[in-house]
Amino acid sequence: xxxxxxxxxxxxxxxxxxxxxxxxxxxxxxxxxxxxxxxxxxxxxxxxxxxxxxxxxxxxxxxxxxxxxxxxxxxxxxxxxxxxxxxxxxxxxxxxxxxxxxxxxxxxxxxxxxxxxxxxxxxxxxxxxxxxxxxxxxxxxxxxxxxxxxxxxxxxxxxx
Length: 160
What we know:
The protein is of the alpha+beta class. The protein has helices at residues 29-39, 44-47, 49-54, 64-76, 152-159; strands at residues 19-21, 25-26, 85-96, 105-117, 123-133, 139-150. It has one domain: Thiol Ester Dehydrase, Chain A, CATH 3.10.129. Strands 1, 2, 3, 4, 5 and 6 form a 6-stranded antiparallel β-sheet that branches. It starts with 18 loop residues before the first strand and ends with a helix.
């Protein structure tokens, strides 16, 4: 499912088992180098092709957290919670299953797996499972993400 404008799912709109797939992003060496600069993680696996090859990789590899960040970015392009997101409550069960190599074309497949109300009737918690897949449909990163989103009651109050 792709969105041209905000979808703005509220807590009540979340149907467990619903699955989405994002657009793709082709990773470049420049992407990996920019992430290294922003995070100050300049390990040679991420910046030195010869070093990465000496460690058994075909080229420089992306940081595991680069993949996790890309998962969130690609998912946010769907605009599911563009105006209904309150906060990310965290990531669980993160697994880096295969390297991200410059030249890989990645996309995210995710599914709503749990939801529960909070003490505040204006907010609810939604849990998604996410897989970052490369062009060969290999899972490179897997995780669970917990989001705090608005309920319809909160949206109606904000519109008044």
